[in-house]
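To close the section, here is one more complete example, presented without commentary so you can practise reading it yourself. The ligand is S-adenosyl-L-homocysteine.
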Amino acid sequence: MTEPVTTTRPNLLDFDAAGLASFFVAHGQPAYRATQLIKWVHQQGVLDLDLMTNFGRGLRELLRETGEFRLPEIISAQESADGTLKWLLRVDNGNAIETVFIPEMDRGTLCVSSQVGCALNCSFCATARQGFSRNLSTGEIIGQVWVAARYLGQHPKTQRRITNVVMMGMGEPLMNFDAVVPAMRLMMEDNAYNLGRKRVTLSTAGHVPGIDRLREECPVALAVSLHAPNDELRNELVPLNRTYPIAELLDACRRYVSNNPHDQITFEYVMLDGVNDTPAHARQLARVLRGIPSKMNLIPFNPVVGAHYRRSTPEAIDAFRRELAKAGLLTITRKTRGEDIDAACGQLVGRVAAKAARHRAAQGSLDV
Ligand code: SAH
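Output:
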C-alpha cells in the first residue's frame, strides 16, 4: 500500500502577524514582510504570489518553496428565505464543517466553527450527536472568514459585509485555544479584517481555565452558554458543568470583566419547554447572576434530530423575559435565523456522508 502524498510545507494561513514575522525572520527576511503578506492575503484576498507586486522574484520563490496556502473548500452554499447563508466546507478528505452568515439591517455576523464535531455532548445540540473528530487549525478557522468574505464580495447583494464574528459554530473554542486565538488576532488585526475587540465574540460552554487564559491573552467579547440556573439541571444539559460547576464558572466570569468597567458577559439560555423555562427558573437565574455585568440572550430551542426537547411557547419565553427584566437584567430573545436550511443555533453538523444521506432521504430515495 502506498500512502497518499501529504504535503509538509507550512500553511501560511496558520500564522497571525507575530507568527508570520517570526517565519520571515527565520528565513532571513525582514519582519515587515509579514504585514505586506497579511494585507495581500486577508485584506485584498490575493493568494497568487505572482500578483504580490511588492515581492521580488527571489522572495516569491522562497515563499513557494517554504510555504503554501491551504483553504477550506466550498462543497455547497445554501441561502435561507431570510437571507442567512450557510456553507459546507471540506477541510480534509473525511471532514467538513459549517459556517453561517447572518445579515441584519446594521451588521453582518459570521458564525465560525472551531472544531470538527464537539466533545462536550450537550443534550440538546446537534453537533454533539456527531461526536468529536478533531480540532481545526488556525488556517482552517481564519480560512472560513477568508472564504466567506470572498463569497460575499462576489454575491449580487454586495452590500453584505462581515462586521462581526462569533465563535459559535461547531465545537468548543476554548478546547482549541492555541489555534483559535491566532485566528481571532487576525480577525482584529488592522491589516487583516480589522474588527474591533467587541466585534469578535467567543462563546463557551463554560471552560473555566480557558476563560482565565483568554482574559490574559486575548480578551474578546465573551458569551457563556448557561442554560440552567442550578447545578442539578445544568449537569444534565451541559455535562461540562460536572467539571466546572456554576459557582466556579460565574467567578471566572466576574474575573473576566474585572479588567474593563465597560465589559459585560453575554449569557446564552436555550429555552426548553417544561425543562428550564418557568418563572421560578428565571428568578433563580437572576439571583445567581446578581452583580455580574451581563446581558441575557434567550434562544428558542431549534429542533434537532434525536433530541426529545420541545421549544418553549412564546408565552413562556415572554414571561421568562419579563421576570428577568423585573430583576434588572437586560434580556433579548434571539430571533431564529436560517432554520429552513438547518443553519440555526445548535443545528450545525458537518459530516458530508450524513448530509448526502439526508439529502437523498429528502429527495424521497430512501434506499441508502
Ligand atoms: N461550544 C460553544 C460554542 C457553540 S455556540 C458553546 O457552547 O457556547 C452554539 C450555541 O447554540 C450555544 O449557546 C449552544 O448551547 C446553543 N445551542 C445548541 N443547540 C441548540 C439548539 N438545539 N437550539 C438552540 N440553541 C442551541
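Once you have examined the C-alpha cells, check your reading against these statements. The mean pLDDT is 92. The chain has two domains: 12-66, 73-357.
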